[in-house]
Every structure is written in structure tokens, then in C-alpha cells.
Amino acid sequence: MTQPSALDSVKRAADTPDERQPYAELGMKREEYDRVRDILGRRPTSSELAIYSVMWSEHCSYKSSKVHLRQFGTKAPQSEALLVGMGENAGVVDIGDGWAATFKIESHNHPSYVEPHQGAATGVGGIVRDIMSMGARPIAVMDALRFGGADQSDTRRVLPGVVEGISHYGNCLGLPNIGGEVVFDPCYIGNPLVNALCVGLLRKDQIKLATAPGPGNKVVLFGALTGPDGIGGASVLASATFEDESQAKRPSVQVGDPFMEKLLIECCLELYQADVVVGIQDLGAAGVSCATTELAAKGTGGMDVQLDLVPLRDPSLRPEEILMSESQERMMAVVTPDDIDAFMAICAKWDIPATVIGEVTDSGRLVMTWHGETIVDIPPGTAADEGPVYERPFHEPDGQAALNAATPADLPRPEDLRATLLQLLGSPNLASKEWVTSQYDRYVRGNTVLAQPADAGVLRISEAMPGAEETTRGIALATDGNGRYARLDPYAGAQLALAEAYRNVAVTGATPLAVTNCLNFGSPEDPEVMWQFAEAVRGLADACKTLGVPVTGGNVSFYNQTGSAAIHPTPVVGVLGVIDDVAGRVRSGFTGEGDKVVLLGETREEFGGSEWAHVAHGHLGGLPPEVDLEAERALARVLVEAAARGLLTGSHDLSDGGLAIALAEACLAQGVGCSVALTGEDAFTDLFSESAARALVTVRPESFDALAELCATHEVPCYGLGTTGGTALTVEGVLEIPLPELREVHTGALPAIFG
Amino acid sequence: MARVIVDVMLKPEILDAQGQAIARALPRLGFSGVSAVRQGKRFEVELEGPADEAALSDVRKMAETLLANTVIEDFTVTVEA
């Protein structure tokens, strides 16, 4: 057994200025450690070192990304809908009738690789608490997932565990999972991406913020007990010697308890209703360190904490470990002395342990004691906000020009387009994701209007809340991201991710309002990766400005690489939209016989980064499809207005796999076939090109003229292709596939692999 | 013929939500004096031959591969007398 080290108090730190400290083992650079010494005017105690090391980590401080992320603010479009922007736990958007929606996407990539089930489950738990901490009731989740090749053996370990973890946690919480993505590419082997999104609903005037104002107010830790979860590196601080290996056995895996989280949700909502919360913060990465420093920094500026009062699951935990513990299902609230009894009574009602561990002060210092001895005494802002900021060098990757020059122009075009369609439709990325999504509860709570495989999830706004009148409103949400496009051109790739999510929201009839993003990249210390990051952020910020949808928050995940091989740069973009009347939402696919099938948008020969090049030739080169944001905006206007006027009977976005896949999916949605004729010169390009800013819609024949007129007004190209009906997908003179054959190929692919 | 028992438990530092739920339920059912409960799994593996070192080594491999998730669980292998 390890001998615990002597308590490293502030007094002891002053007396032993030269004691060697394990800053490097905690991931701190020498300059960063020296800066801590400068700030404090002495060496930090081991508890202070724990706080600074974790608060100044890439994950918490955004030290490599900050200089680029600023563009989301400086280039932000004017938006009256934005109530809370970046910098809080999640952004909040005005969705009308007194309602607001809060949403955010966050990565849980590495934990999901180490322990897929628990990693993915706690990813859901973490993002749900972010949404709760804004004052909202979480109402739905979705997940954007990336795995290695479907045929790679580790994918068979990671994918089932991740899907199980998401479904377990989300289903236990009773939250519908309404969408997301599953993408396979060998570049993600060893670095799967698990990006979890949550959306919550609240009244506009009930927004809560992470702040600790008012000296004398109580600081309450409530929720699960604190255990040695996810401590990892902090153990080095708690052991007697740095060489001691026995302490390194502390797990880096966190295990969640969704039933505790469910209680926590209901408890928080009742606390908000009773109006007994001044400020609130969820405990995520960096646990108590993060919550105390951030709350104090945003409030009156000071806080006294008795760390020995933190209730523990494992009584042997040392203060350094308590500070860094990532135990799940915990929250911290600031409560006035007058309200504390009411607060505690509500927690007791929900069986939620709650403990007053400190008090807000105006001292400007965060002071923590351990059985009477002072172990932390720092200005909280120096840990929370004034971390290091790096202008990392970046340059275009050496092989980028060659990659862009290797266009798909020379790839042999297929003779048999029927076989190509079936090959693509049954490939892992385009195959039906039903095997995954059927493990999620999509309809719990009864407000789901559209869910997978629809282009976007749509929810009815229906909450029994005081002061809330009846509303017909709904919200729509979609996430998208294409790593291959971003690999070819990160600036355009990020814009295409936004454009697709924006389009997916618009095809349901909802008006896109706001953006969240999860930026998954390799190591920022690699200038080539940093270039990809810089370009992607610049592209996304520019596109948000043009489309008039502000970024409300999100998350950066760096170091997604194994050795020197980084993943494709993968910006995942989530777009939230609002629809005035959910009864007018448009389904994605053919809904009846005899409708006119219409293609909106222009098709060019664009195969760079396409599914066809990937599946048929294993090719990645050239440039991604051209970005035309004005065309995207015009298309969205047509889609939203046409839906509002009741013109559309179905609507589906064109993206991966082009028109061919969109037609197949539209047929399979309700089992309605179609007969269409192509309009271009080359059937292959017409069917498989991935040109952006396109959608496939259906209208009753008598509505076609009205749609055509609307398209003309907005200068959106509009082509009548044919008619719905029958039991086959027929492209005149090119191919005919009976729907049962189509369905078998589409739905059989993933079960055949993951069974 | 021999029977080998594999006991799988969450590592002591890992949160055991089910064990906690049981511990919370006990007082409600009138049982007192219990300070904590941890829940695990027990496997009874029937061997075709004797439980010699080679067979036990195989069982340990089975436990590592399938019966236990060694990222968060420990296991013990014992031969039933």
C-alpha cells in the first residue's frame, strides 16, 4: 500500500519553495508551471497544481483553439433569436411564444475507445447535465458517430458497445434519440468519434447561468458521491513519491448511473420552479476544480470551500483526487441562506444527497481548506479564464496539393448503373442505420414528430409549465459532417457540413436558427493538423455569417490520432431550426402515389470525396463539391415557404451518394416506388454526383406550377423528373429495381456485419 | 469432470450503481446493519476433463476475453471442490 503524502498546505508550500513538483506528469509545460508560480508568488500546493493543470489542459482551456474560435464571435451574424451565446454551458435560442431552446454537442471520443459502453453512456450523461444547468428540461438527444472500417475487427468491439451505452443511458433517462449519424472510415480505427448532442426546453425568462454572486450565499454540491473516477494523472499528486506505481491504478474510466441522473433532472427542475437557485454549474471534466473556479470567477469573485465536506464514495480519497475526480451525476449550485432549507428539502424529496461545502465571498480568492488547513488560495479567474493561449504554427500539409490534383476524373465510370446503385446502397455508410437506431428509444415522451431515418429530428413543443400557453411550434435538429470533404479542403468541408445540416433542417419545413459544433481533429502540435483546424474554423465562421445562423457553442476535440496518423479533420455541425406548426412538417420520402417528383438545385460533375469514389475505387482526391451558400439559402427559403403553404408531400435532402441514393431512400421510406427520367447529359453524373444545395421534393400535380413559380422567385433550378407510384424504382432507360430488392440491400448490410 | 467457478466483480474503485441501489433498498425492506453492497457475476464452467493447470489457464483466458470486461472488472478463478 502507498503511504499517503503529508498534507501539502499553503503554509508548507511557502516553507518548501524548492520541492520538486510533478507538473510534467500532469501534462503541464515548464512555462505554464512557472506562470502558476508567478501568479501565486510561491510554488503551488499539490491541490493548486491539480486545479491549474486540469483547468489549463487543452480540454478545459481551449488554449490551442481559442485564437481561432474567436471568429465565431467576431463574424457572428446579427440574430435576434440568440439569447445566450458562446461561453456558457450551452447556447440558448428564442423559438417563439415565450419558449427557448438550448442545445449543444460535445465529444466523448477517447473514453469511448477505452470502454465503449461506459464512455458513450457518460458522454450522453455529460451533455444532458450541460443542458440542465441552463435551466432547461432536456427533451431529446442525438449522436454523431464515426468508427473505423465496418469490416475492421476493432469496430466490432467499439460500435456495439457505443450503441449499447448510448441506448442504455438515454433510454433509462427517458429521452428520445431523434437522429445523428453513423459513418465508417478506416481513419477512425483507434480513434472513434462519439459526439453527443442534447437539446432542452425552457421558458425564455428562466435561463440559469453559471455564476456565484452574493457574498454569504451557500455553495452546494449535490448529486452522486465523489469517487475515484477518471482521475488518471492526478494520482501522481496523491502518492508519496512520483515513482510510486501503485497509485497509477486509479481508473480513467468513469461509470455513470442514469437513474441518478434522472432524479437529478427532476430535482433541478423543481429547484428552478421554486426559484431557490442563484447560479448553477454541472460537474464535468475537471469536476470540483472546474465548478468552483468558474462559478467564483463569474460571480462576486471569491469563494471559501471546505473540501473535507465533499461526500465521498471512497473515504481514502486525497484532496488532490477530490479536486480532479470526474464522478458523474454531480451538480453545484449557489443558494441564498434564506433558501437553503427549501433547497435541501427538495433534494431530500428526490433522494439526492446535497451538502453545503462553502460560501461565496468578495475576497477575490478561491480558498479551500482540508480539516482546517488552507490547501488552496488562488485568484479563481487565473485558473478559469486566464489560462495559456497558444498561437500554434500551422501550414498546409505537404501532400495537400498532390491530394487535390489526384481528381476522380480519371476513375473508370461504371457501365452498369443498376449494380452501382445497389453497391452503394448496401455499403456501410449509405446502408440503413436501423440496426443502430432501433436500439434507441425514438418516441418516448410522445413529442417526437420525426426521427431517424428522417433528415432531421423534429419535436413538438409541449410542456406543462406554469405560464406556458398552447403552441403549435416545433423544433428541428440535424447534425452533419463529412471527414473526406474536410480532408480534401477543410475550409469547404466545414462549410459543406453546415450546409448539409442547414438543408436537413429546411427539408422538414423548419427555418434554421442556430449552430453548435464539435470539431474533431488530430494533434494541434502538428502544424499540418493545425492548418486543417484553422481552415475549418474560418470556413465555418464565414458560412455562419453568410447563412445568418450564429454559433452558440460547442466543443473542440484534439489529439484524435494514433502515432502520427491523424483522423480526417471532422467538423460535425448541428443546426437547430424552428417550425411554426409541427402539423405542417414534411416527411422525407415519397408519401403517396401519383405525386410529381421534382429535383431542386443544380447538378454538376462532382465526385471528389464522393461515396462512389470511396466505395467503388477506394479513392480520395480532388476537391469536394462546390460550396454555394447563396444557393443553399435560396433553397432553404423555397423549402420552408413551400412547406408552410402546404405544397410539399415529401422532401429529402441530396447528399452522400447523390440523387440515386436519395431516390432509393425516398422509395423505401413508405414503400412507394417511382418512375423518373434524368434531365442531364450523363446518367452517371445525374445519379451519383454529390453537388450540394439540392433537394428532392414531391408535390401533388396541381401544385407543381406554384412550386415552379416559387423556385423562379428565389432563382432555384427546378426539374420535374417523373411520378411516384408502383413497386419499383425506375429510372427510364437506365435501371429498374423492385422495392423488395432495394430494401434487402439497404437494411441487410449492417445486421450482416454486426448481427 | 470438474467445475471451475469464475467470479467477476467491478473493480473496487468503479461505481457500482446496482450495488448501491440494493444497499438503499435494504433498509426500506426492514434489513438493518448493512453499510454497503457490491454486486458481481458468477460463472460455473463445466470442464470435460480435469481442472489441471492447462485447463485453468484456458478458463482465465475465457474470463479475460468474454466473461469479464477487464477495463472495469476483476475476476477470480477457483476450482469447486
TrEMBL record, chain A:
The PurM-like C-terminal domain extends over 215-370, 593-726
Q: Name the residues annotated as catalytic in the UniProt entry.
A: 59, 108
- Species, as recorded: Planobispora takensis
Its predominant location is: cytoplasm
Q: Basic and acidic residues bias: where?
A: 9-22
Quaternary structure and partners: Monomer. Part of the FGAM synthase complex composed of 1 PurL, 1 PurQ and 2 PurS subunits.
**Which residues bind Mg(2+) 2 per the record?**
130, 282
Q: What's the EC number here?
A: 6.3.5.3
- Keyword Transcription on this protein? no
Descriptive protein name: Phosphoribosylformylglycinamidine synthase subunit PurL
Source taxonomy lineage? Bacteria, Bacillati, Actinomycetota, Actinomycetes, Streptosporangiales
Q: What pathway is this protein said to act in by its record?
A: Purine metabolism; IMP biosynthesis via de novo pathway; 5-amino-1-(5-phospho-D-ribosyl)imidazole from N(2)-formyl-N(1)-(5-phospho-D-ribosyl)glycinamide: step 1/2
The record's section on InterPro entries has: PRibForGlyAmidine_synth_PurL, PurL_linker, PurM-like_C_dom, PurM-like_C_sf, PurM-like_N, PurM-like_N_sf
Q: Which domain of life is it from?
A: Bacteria
Q: What does this protein do?
A: Part of the phosphoribosylformylglycinamidine synthase complex involved in the purines biosynthetic pathway. Catalyzes the ATP-dependent conversion of formylglycinamide ribonucleotide (FGAR) and glutamine to yield formylglycinamidine ribonucleotide (FGAM) and glutamate. The FGAM synthase complex is composed of three subunits. PurQ produces an ammonia molecule by converting glutamine to glutamate. PurL transfers the ammonia molecule to FGAR to form FGAM in an ATP-dependent manner.
The cross-references to PANTHER family, in alphabetical order and at most eight, read: PHOSPHORIBOSYLFORMYLGLYCINAMIDINE SYNTHASE SUBUNIT PURL
Q: Which gene encodes it?
A: purL
TrEMBL record, chain B:
Instruction: Give me any GO biological process, just one.
Output: 'de novo' IMP biosynthetic process
GO CC list: cytoplasm
User: Keywords assigned by UniProt?
Assistant: ATP-binding, Cytoplasm, Ligase, Nucleotide-binding, Purine biosynthesis
Where's it found, cell-wise?
Cytoplasm
Major localization listed first in the record, in broad terms: cytoplasm
Recall the GO molecular function terms of this protein's record: ATP binding; phosphoribosylformylglycinamidine synthase activity
Q: Per the record's keyword annotation, is Signal included, yes or no?
A: no
- Gene3D superfamilies associated with the record: Phosphoribosylformylglycinamidine synthase subunit PurS
Instruction: Return the EC number.
Output: 6.3.5.3
The family database entries (SUPFAM superfamilies) matched by this protein are listed as: PurS-like
Q: Does the keyword Ligase apply?
A: yes
From what superkingdom does this record's organism come? Bacteria
Reaction equation(s) it catalyzes? N(2)-formyl-N(1)-(5-phospho-beta-D-ribosyl)glycinamide + L-glutamine + ATP + H2O = 2-formamido-N(1)-(5-O-phospho-beta-D-ribosyl)acetamidine + L-glutamate + ADP + phosphate + H(+)
Question: Tell me, how does this one assemble?
Answer: Part of the FGAM synthase complex composed of 1 PurL, 1 PurQ and 2 PurS subunits.
Q: Which NCBIfam families match?
A: phosphoribosylformylglycinamidine synthase subunit PurS, PRK05974.1
Q: Its family?
A: Belongs to the PurS family.
What does it do? Part of the phosphoribosylformylglycinamidine synthase complex involved in the purines biosynthetic pathway. Catalyzes the ATP-dependent conversion of formylglycinamide ribonucleotide (FGAR) and glutamine to yield formylglycinamidine ribonucleotide (FGAM) and glutamate. The FGAM synthase complex is composed of three subunits. PurQ produces an ammonia molecule by converting glutamine to glutamate. PurL transfers the ammonia molecule to FGAR to form FGAM in an ATP-dependent manner.
Matches recorded under PANTHER family: PHOSPHORIBOSYLFORMYLGLYCINAMIDINE SYNTHASE SUBUNIT PURS (PTHR34696:SF1)
Q: What is this protein called?
A: Phosphoribosylformylglycinamidine synthase subunit PurS
Q: Which organism is the protein's source?
A: Planobispora takensis
